[in-house]
């Protein structure tokens, strides 16, 4: 029997970056907020003395248990979908703090072009530049409109950086200065400037200096230990919900976190949601949590799945192109890269930070002419120095034997004498790429798993080769003696790690016919339901998504407050008209 609990103002499903930001902003205004998190609780002490590469980086201590819940995958609708049973392409975090606990800290603002990609592409190159099956859309918000929320997020997190010469304008400088320039970064800087490019130090959520944010949260500077991605930061130098927004929300006395709470359904009555039903995974008890506003702030797949299971919104139909829930799933293009081996130079590759590196954006967005190219958009090119831990890294030139004395000798020779320059390309949305419920595979409750249908397209192959050639040219200018270049992009393989940058499925826009949420991430169909996170991206840009998730979370929080103050209603006027090709 379901036990009905006292009503709260807001219930949040998922307590990561998006949930933490919204909880912080709403509780400061006096609203009562309950946060439901499917995983365990965490505290800073959990990160102490946790530099264990095998436990965290290889065996995925901080990730979701795929034997209990996973996704299914297929490349196209003709294939049979199968469950992902071991980690490969991406890593699904779980527990209080979400992916914000184990991310690297690589933090970006999307380019102005990214938010109006469809209209700007047509304006400059004509509608024929966009393939018929490519369903890219404008976001329903411009860079200038989202910029204040980027600024708010960066001040909270203490983002370290310097101006991007080819990025959008900033209302304020970064709250902290750029990270240190290592020897490898200096070499990249000099080489790219010689090539007429525009390098800058990567924006980082790893603090370059001690910092106190506007909420009074003080954190210390990064130690460059190299244990960021897949690890919690024991110093608190890496911006993490546990050391930024969640303490603020808890200090108000208006926020309650309930870990081990598996939300199974959103409850709906007419055109309003009334709360959620969840299971306490420790006791097996089922509870109803009523609320005036429900906010989905879980990961992309969970946001989509919960809406589909709750029969809220119109499921996407890839045959007709109608519907919105599950539409425009997109990923990231990470195969275009080159590794240079240096016979006379050595670098301290084991030191580093998750957000440490040098970048050029000359080939990102529409910063270069695409007239004679068979793709749109592009990607950043980065030399990152995240810290090469010993178990997972052993770079040797092509043609080297993979065992024996020569293998050992070459491995030792290039242990600190190899550098990788990588392209991180944008991922466009296509009619045939989507999320839905798997008709065969179910979770322990008997509910269908979420299914991904996705593959790389010719756009992605062309972009990969283009970025790879640019990476190789930079390494030549840097003086590498041997260069191995990755230009080929085969079928998408869910078993091979690439990035955790999954996006789409509950996309934002200005037209309810082609988007699920408005620019405040409020559902068009249900005005007291907000769906926040990278699930709102209509397609993915040539950057990591977290900074944009943070900015959208602050805008959504502002929207929820407006919703309460206005006693309900839609916050944005819908604009009718075809938004995609």
How would you portray this structure in words?
This protein is of the alpha/beta class and 581 residues long. The chain has a single domain (3-74, 84-565), classed as FAD/NAD(P)-binding domain. Helix content is 22%, strand content 19%. The chain has helices at 17-28, 53-58, 112-115, 117-125, 143-157, 183-194, 245-251, 300-309, 404-413, 458-478, 546-565; strands at residues 3-4, 8-13, 33-36, 72-74, 82-83, 199-201, 211-212, 218-219, 255-258, 261-269, 272-280, 286-296, 327-330, 337-341, 357-360, 379-384, 418-425, 434-442, 448-453, 482-486, 503-505, 529-531. The strands form five sheets. Strands 1, 2, 3, 9, 10, 11, 12 and 22 form an eight-stranded mixed sheet that branches. Strand 2, helix 1 (17-28) and strand 3 form a beta-alpha-beta unit. Helix 5 packs across helix 11 (546-565). The longest helix is centred in the C-terminal third of the chain and has 21 residues, at 458-478. It is globular and about 70 Å long.
Strand content range: 15-25%
What is the CATH-assigned architecture?
3-Layer(bba) Sandwich
Structural class: alpha/beta
Number of helices: 11
Largest β-sheet summary? 8 strands, mixed
State the share of residues found in helices, binned by percent: 10-25%
InterPro entries: FAD/NAD-bd_sf (IPR036188), GMC_OxRtase_C (IPR007867)
Protein name: GMC family oxidoreductase
GO molecular function: oxidoreductase activity, acting on CH-OH group of donors
Domain Glucose-methanol-choline oxidoreductase C-terminal: 437-552
């Amino acid at each position: 029997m379901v036990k009905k609990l006292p009503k709260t103002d807001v219930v949040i499903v998922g307590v990561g970056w998006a949930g933490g930001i919204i909880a912080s902003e709403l509780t400061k205004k006096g609203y009562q907020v309950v946060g439901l998190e499917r995983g365990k609780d965490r505290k800073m002490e959990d990160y102490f003395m946790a530099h264990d590469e095998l436990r965290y980086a290889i065996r995925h201590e901080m990730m979701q248990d795929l034997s209990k819940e996973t996704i299914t995958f297929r490349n196209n609708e003709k294939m049979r979908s199968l469950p992902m049973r071991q980690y490969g392409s991406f890593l699904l975090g779980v527990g209080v703090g979400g992916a914000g606990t184990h991310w690297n800290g690589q933090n970006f603002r999307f380019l102005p072009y990214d938010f109006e990609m469809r209209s700007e592409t047509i304006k400059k190159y004509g509608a024929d530049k966009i393939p018929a099956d490519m369903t890219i859309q404008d976001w329903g918000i411009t860079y200038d409109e989202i910029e204040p929320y980027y600024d708010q997020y960066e001040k909270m997190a203490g983002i370290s950086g310097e101006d991007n010469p080819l990025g959008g304008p900033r209302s304020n400088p970064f709250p902290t200065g750029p990270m240190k320039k290592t020897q490898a970064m200096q070499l990249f800087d000099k080489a790219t400037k010689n090539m007429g490019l525009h390098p800058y130090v990567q924006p980082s959520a790893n603090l370059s200096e001690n910092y106190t944010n506007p909420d009074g949260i003080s954190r210390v500077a990064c130690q460059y230990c190299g244990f960021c991605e897949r690890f919690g930061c024991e110093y608190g130098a890496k911006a993490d919900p546990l050391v930024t927004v969640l303490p603020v929300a808890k200090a108000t006395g208006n926020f309650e976190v309930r870990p081990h709470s598996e939300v199974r359904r959103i409850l709906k009555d007419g055109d309003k949601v009334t709360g959620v039903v969840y299971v306490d995974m420790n006791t097996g008890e089922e509870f109803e949590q009523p609320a005036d506003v429900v906010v989905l702030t879980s990961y992309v797949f969970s946001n989509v799945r919960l809406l589909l299971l709750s029969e809220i919104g119109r499921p996407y139909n890839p045959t007709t192109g109608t519907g919105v829930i599950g539409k425009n799933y997109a990923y990231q293009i990470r195969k275009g890269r080159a590794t240079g081996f240096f016979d006379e130079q050595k670098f301290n590759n084991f030191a580093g930070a998750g957000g440490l590196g040098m970048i050029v954006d000359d080939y990102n967005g529409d910063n270069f002419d695409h007239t004679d190219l068979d793709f749109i958009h592009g990607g950043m090119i980065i030399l990152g120095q995240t810290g090469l831990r010993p178990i997972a890294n052993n770079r040797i030139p092509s043609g080297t034997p993979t065992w024996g004395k020569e293998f050992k000798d070459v491995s030792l020779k290039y242990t600190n004498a190899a550098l990788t320059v990588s392209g991180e390309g944008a991922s466009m949305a296509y009619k045939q790429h989507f999320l839905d419920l798997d008709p065969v595979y179910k979770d322990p409750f008997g509910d269908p798993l979420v299914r991904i249908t996705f593959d790389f397209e010719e756009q992605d192959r062309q972009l990969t080769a283009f970025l790879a050639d640019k990476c190789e040219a930079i390494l030549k200018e840097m003086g590498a003696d041997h260069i191995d270049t990755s230009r080929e992009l085969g079928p998408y393989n869910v078993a091979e790690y690439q990035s955790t940058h999954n996006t789409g499925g509950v996309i934002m826009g200005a037209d309810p016919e082609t988007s699920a949420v408005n620019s405040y991430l409020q559902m068009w169909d249900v005005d007291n339901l907000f769906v926040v996170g990278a699930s709102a991206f209509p397609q993915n840009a040539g950057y990591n998504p977290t900074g944009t998730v943070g900015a959208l979370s602050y805008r959504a929080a502002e929207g929820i407050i407006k919703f309460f103050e206005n006693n309900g209603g839609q916050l944005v006027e819908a604009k009718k008209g075809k938004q995609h090709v």
